[in-house]
Amino acid sequence: MARRKRKVMITCAVTGAIHTPSMSPHLPITPEEIADAAVGAAEAGAALVHVHARNPKTGQPDQSPQAFEPFLKVIKQRTSAVINITTGGAPTMLVEERLQPCAYFKPEVASLNMGSMNFGLYPMLERTKDFKFDWEKPYLEGSHDRIFKNTFKDIENILTTCAENGTRFEIECYDIGHLYTLRHFADRGLVKPPFFIQSVFGILGGIGPHPEDVAHMKRTADRLFGDEYEWSVLGAGRNQLPIAMQALSLGGNVRVGLEDSLWAGPGRLAKSNAEQVTLVKQMIEALGLEIATPEDAREILQLKGADKVGF
Ligand code: KMH
Ligand code: ZN
């Protein structure tokens, strides 16, 4: 009898708040660009799309529900992909602001950052010298002395606000300690399995991208959560595909997208989010694995369904 292939969920995070418009002409900025990027990623094989919003004129991260509204419905109408709304926003924002779009639109999935940390964006100043907009340089420079604040109280605030909406979390763990923080909240009954753990590798301030780091993250998650979790990884910048490859060989799912890497190869800017999805899809298929559809992802993650969101 033929063995069933493992299904791999691809998440695509299409714009985020790490990169600034001057770094790549392909970074989606306007609602139309964000919608097109998400639809393109879904058509290329992403089961989930992780979205942030930006000011359409300046590209500055914007966490107001009004900034999300113009593209959420469009993505929902044009694809069946699971839409995942950020509660991370940008490291410059406080949790009350970051929480608003998720509380308002009640998505199937929302991101949840599991600890306060340094979030070093300033090394990118070496690469980009000319900025189109006034906010970009101070934003990157400011990361030298900025904490991405996610205290226990902040996390609890997000968990309790979204609990009654049936939103599941993409639990972003940038270090081993974040897994223990998740265990703490699970033990208190504030978050329920299956846990969708997104391990983040290669952010300055978090765990590195070494294979030992990836293996240790997986080992620790296995020990703390057994079969009650789905593991996904993202590698920042040039680590995107190498980290994906390691995690795929360990049974993981993957996240790509211009939020975390602008690249499609050494020194080659990705022309679209779909291009990165295609690259990782080829890798998955070469390993003899199957791409999960949005409906597969809904089943694996036990999501409430696209008909139960508030947009
Ligand atoms: N770009 C990731 C490393 C969030 O949106 O909640 C962080 C992130 C945060 O995705
Ligand atoms: Zn994000």
Based on Cα principal axes, name the global outline.
Answer: globular
Per DSSP, the total helix count is: 10
Largest beta-sheet details = 8 strands, parallel, barrel
Indicate the radius of gyration in whole angstroms.
18 Å
The CATH homologous superfamily corresponds to Aldolase class I
Report strand %. Answer: 15-25%
The assigned CATH architecture is Alpha-Beta Barrel
- Kindly state the percentage of residues in helix: 25-40%
Strand order of the largest sheet: 2-3-4-5-8-9-10-11
Count of strand segments: 14
The span between the termini is 44 Å
Which class do the helix and strand fractions yield? alpha/beta
The stretches of 5 or more residues where confidence is low (pLDDT under 50) are: none
State the order of secondary-structure elements, H for helix, E for strand.
Answer: EEHEHEHEEHEHEHEHEHEEEHEH
> Ligands bound here?
(5S)-5-amino-3-OXO-hexanoic acid, zinc ion
CATH class: Alpha Beta
Instruction: Give the rounded overall mean pLDDT.
Output: 97
Notes on the protein architecture:
- The protein has 311 residues and is an alpha/beta fold.
- It has a single domain, classed as TIM Barrel, CATH 3.20.20.70.
- The chain contains 10 helices and 14 strands.
- The strands form 4 sheets. The protein has an 8-stranded parallel barrel with strand order 2-3-4-5-8-9-10-11, surrounded by 8 helices.
- Strand 4, helix 3 and strand 5 (109-113) form a beta-alpha-beta unit.
- The radius of gyration is 18 Å and the shape is globular.
- The protein binds (5S)-5-amino-3-OXO-hexanoic acid and zinc ion.
- (5S)-5-amino-3-OXO-hexanoic acid binds next to strand 5.
- Residues 13, 16, 50, 52, 86, 88, 111, 259 line the site of zinc ion.
